[in-house]
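Worked example

This section walks through a single chain of length 237. The input is the sequence exactly as stored; nothing has been trimmed or padded.
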Amino acid sequence: GAGASELTRVSITSAFGKPLYLKAIMIGCVLSAFQQLSGINVVVSASNRLFQNAGMTGVWVSVASLGVTCVNLVACLCASPLVERLGRKKLLMIGNLGQGVALLPAAVACVLEAVGGGVSEQVTEVLSIASVGGFVIFFAVAMGPVLWIYLSEMYTNDVKEAASALASALNWVFCIAMVFSSSFMPNSVAFTLFCVISFVAAAFVHVFVLETRGYSVGSSPYFPGVGSGVGPEGGDR
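Given that input, the structure is written out below as tokens.
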């Protein structure tokens, strides 16, 4: 149609010179970074080490890691109905807050144990397993799948390809950086850092992220008046 033939792709370099594009691109990139800064790939790839640091031994380390994988799979199956029922922004808020709350008990226990605060190794072990399980559940129903849905919806067609590619590239960069740096982190630092980052991510979503549910293809709340109209969500924050 005429709309398709008139579509002009916007490069990242030219988009950076336009405030409207720049703001949306930065929000997408920060969200993408937060997905990895939450520590999900550290928890999954280094779960054996995390559980060993928490005091587990023998076959129970592998059993706990397998349990984390199973929890992740089951939680992912719940994401699809939730994202349409709650909306993208609300689910991202719930997910990040849930991640922070889930990691808080393990963070406190590991810090107290590290400073000799009277917390037993057994208590730290149990809290670490419970925290990791809760963290994985909240990630799997929110930041895991919803980020990619959101990136596909938040941009108009002229800049979607370039902006999504940049956000994906940053996601990989932060993934590698987090997995590499985690090998130098004791559990007290790792759990505390990931807990704080999850709460900061929730605050970022609350302040900057706009709801995209109900917008038609090619339309976005970040680009008012561009595209083919909006749906029932009407661009509510």
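What to look for: The longest helix spans residues 59-86.
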